[in-house]
Write a structure and sequence with these properties.
Order of helices and strands of chain B: EHHEHEHHHEHHEHEHEHEH
CATH architecture of chain B: Alpha-Beta Barrel
Shape of chain A: globular
Number of strands of chain B: 8
Structural class of chain B: alpha/beta
CATH architecture of the largest domain in chain A: 2-Layer Sandwich
Largest sheet of chain A: 8 strands, mixed
CATH class of chain B: Alpha Beta
CATH class of the largest domain in chain A: Alpha Beta
Number of helices of chain B: 12
Oligomer: heterodimer
Order of helices and strands of chain A: HEHEHEHEHEHEHEEEEEEEHHHHH
Number of strands of chain A: 13
CATH superfamily of chain B: NADP-dependent oxidoreductase domain
Helix content of chain A: 25-40%
Number of domains of chain A: 2
Strand order of the largest sheet of chain B: 1-8-7-6-5-4-3-2
Chain lengths: 359, 303
């Protein structure tokens, strides 16, 4: 991902890319050939030598903590890729430190910059759904399709796994649109192909006001061309189904003030997406960097995706992990199981017992 | 360059407006015969170019065209490379070096060197780029490919990084090896044109989103219109309907009115939609003073 970040930073007005750092000598040397920015292989040296306003951290998550700490110590604005950190306690400490130091901070949860989801948030805030009683957050994609992979995504120690790498997007989107859940009622982490990490995650979460949310994530689904994230919100006045491409709204009553008819209303990404200065792979990647740059220039700490909001997703991840280890409630194996066992052995007698009469 | 180019997004589950529609199309076109049938419809409507990614299934299409040259006289392919998801998925799964050794043909020098453990760092980027292009071009062997494009993901990445040499390498290689003109697909038209002119690629062929609602026209629609009106290059308009967000008549009128646009790229699934789009283009071309886009539209077959 670092190369895409470099391309966007290099092309966004208001940003001057003065230095890059990559621990892989190849990347550092190839990139060094094409950019005026000075290249480093040691971030501490770069921070010591370069007078900077901001840093963008796009390493695997394992390396985030010391880098963020070092940048906070220098008083620099920080854009850090997601997942933010591997240990929530570290995340809380970093969010507090950034707050105390008064620095602009942002985490790369780019779905907060996808036009359709921004639109969902505005509809929810306008109260069109009445009381929302359930939300489903889903993410599917083709990341791990075979048992062995050579990438950090397959390793637990480096922050791999569908829960950290995929589910966090869906959870952050849930938090962005309706707020963080208060409880995790049940959860399951499963492997489809990976040996060390989870490939699928399912969880049922609760809110203190009675609303519930389900999380469904599977990154071993080859039928998707790329990551696909979806949000469905059920309310007393209507329903919203949204993905990257479109927002479908069902209204029980019209809301003429918002241009919403009774029944189905569909809006597409083609009309909901704000143009960007430079496009690479999706407006949201440029939009989040443009947003960060504007906030750094204005000294405005209220970015749309802060360390603090990222930590909320990590806290939910921890709760899901804990819930997944709890004992399940076994379905009572009284007479019914005895009956079904007999059913398999001797259908007629079994059915007779089940229905309590002779056949 | 041909006026009307037929695209392939609909065949491979790409729809910028609806995942459901994309899925329905992916289901229909998983049968290669459906793709061929649609290309037949395009041919019979007078279209002579298939502008396609180097998706592995295009290889099957190429086999069909190679086997039936008499059915498709004058037909040309404009390959667009690389099919980015193939690379992105391979890099995610196997890492950079692993992906390269998977994607390069086994008998190629680099492929075997990589398999032998040579590190990427010691390789010459220009010969690596050449080999990747050759690997992508294999499926078009024996077919006419007068223009070869770099896909926007790669064009725009190179553009963003400032690695402009890569454009030069690509242009030189496709000219020398395939006697083809280089084409560049981008979402950042004005910015790219400045750069290509800067490195001496004159009057370049650039394919970009050009549509009335400014969908994916980074840098702004005004800037696009001004660039098309005033600068010297050969623009191809794609995403002219913005995946269906603009009514067809309005969409075609808008692009035909900009006289410097040389070619129009569109994709469609039904014979009716293909025919309607071709008719609309001809109608507005005539209205804005351009000759008929297709010399032999709707040939009546005499029995």
């Amino acid at each position: 991902m670092g190369i895409s970040h470099q391309a966007i930073l290099n092309s966004t007005s208001g940003i001057e890319l003065v230095a890059t750092c990559d621990s892989t000598p190849l990347v550092a040397s190839v990139m060094g050939r094409y950019t005026k920015a000075r290249s480093y292989s040691d971030y501490a040296e770069m921070l010591a030598k370069e007078p900077l306003d901001a840093v963008v951290i796009a390493t695997p998550p394992k390396a985030h903590v010391p880098m963020v700490e070092a940048a906070i110590a220098k008083g620099l604005a920080i854009f850090c890729e997601k997942p933010f950190v591997l240990e929530t306690a570290d995340g809380i400490a970093l969010a507090k430190a950034a707050e105390t130091a008064g620095i602009v901070n942002q985490v790369g949860y780019h779905y907060r910059f996808v036009g359709s989801f921004v639109h969902v948030k505005s509809l929810v805030d306008a109260g069109i759904l009445g009381r929302i009683h359930h939300v489903t957050a889903e993410a599917y994609g083709p990341v791990v399709l075979r048992p062995k992979t050579g990438s950090w995504r397959g390793s637990k120690q480096t922050g791999g796994g569908a829960l950290y790498d995929y589910a966090t997007h869906a959870l952050d989107l849930l938090n962005y649109c309706v707020g963080r859940p208060d409880t995790v009622l049940s959860a399951s982490l499963g492997s489809v192909f990976s040996e060390e990490v989870d490939d699928e995650v399912y969880a049922l979460m609760g809110y203190d006001d009675g609303m519930t949310a389900t999380l469904q994530v599977n990154w071993s689904d080859e039928s998707y061309r790329k990551m696909s994230t979806k949000l469905t919100l059920y309310g007393t006045k209507g329903k919203i189904i949204a993905d990257r491409q479109e927002v479908q709204v069902y209204m029980r009553e019209p809301r003429p003030d918002l241009g919403l008819n009774q029944g189905w209303n569909v809006r597409y990404t083609t009309e909901l997406t704000e143009p960007v200065d430079y496009y690479l792979r999706g407006e949201e990647y440029s939009a989040q960097i443009e947003h960060f740059a504007r906030h750094v220039a204005a000294g405005d700490k209220a970015t749309r995706s802060t360390f603090a909001t990222a930590v909320e997703a990590d806290m939910t991840v921890d709760a899901i992990r804990a819930a997944a280890t709890r004992d399940a409630i076994r379905i009572d194996d009284g007479e019914m199981v005895a009956a079904s066992t007999q059913t398999r052995a001797r259908p007629r007698t079994g059915l007779a017992r089940l229905f309590g009469k002779s056949q | 360059m041909e006026r009307i180019l037929f695209g392939d997004n609909q065949f491979f589950g790409v729809n910028h407006m609806s995942e459901e529609k994309a899925r329905a199309q992916a289901m229909r076109f998983q049968d290669i015969r459906e793709i061929i049938k649609t290309l037949d419809n395009a041919y019979d409507a007078g279209i002579r170019v298939f502008m396609c990614t180097t998706h592995e299934r295009v290889g099957e299409v190429c086999d069909h065209f190679r086997a039936n040259p008499d059915r498709y006289p004058g037909f040309q392919f404009y390959p667009c490379m690389p099919y980015a998801h193939k690379y992105a998925n391979a890099v995610t799964e196997y890492g950079m070096t692993g992906a390269l050794s998977k994607l390069l043909p086994g008998e190629s020098k680099i492929g075997s060197l990589l398999k032998g453990g040579l590190s990427l760092a010691r390789m010459d980027m220009e010969s690596l780029a050449g080999m990747l292009i050759d690997a992508e071009m294999q499926m078009f062997n024996g077919l006419s490919t007068p223009i070869i494009f770099i896909q926007n993901v790669v064009t725009d990445l190179i553009l963003g990084l400032g690695a402009y040499d890569a454009f030069r390498m690509f242009a030189d290689h496709v000219k020398a090896k395939y006697n083809a003109e280089p084409g560049f697909i981008t979402m950042n038209l004005p910015r790219l044109l400045d750069v290509l002119e800067g490195i001496g690629i004159e009057n370049p062929i650039i394919c970009a989103n050009i549509n009335k609602i400014a969908f994916r026209t980074a840098g702004g629609l005004d800037n696009y219109e001004k660039t098309i009106a005033e600068r010297k290059f050969r623009p191809i308009a794609m995403s002219i309907f913005a995946s269906g967000a603009i009514p067809a008549t309005e969409a075609v009128e808008y692009v035909c009115e900009q006289k410097n646009i040389e070619a129009l790229l569109f994709g469609a699934s039904s014979a009716g939609n293909i025919r309607n789009t071709v008719d609309l283009i001809n109608k507005y071309d005539a209205q804005f003073g351009r000759g008929s886009a297709l010399a032999a539209v709707s040939p009546q077959v005499s029995v």
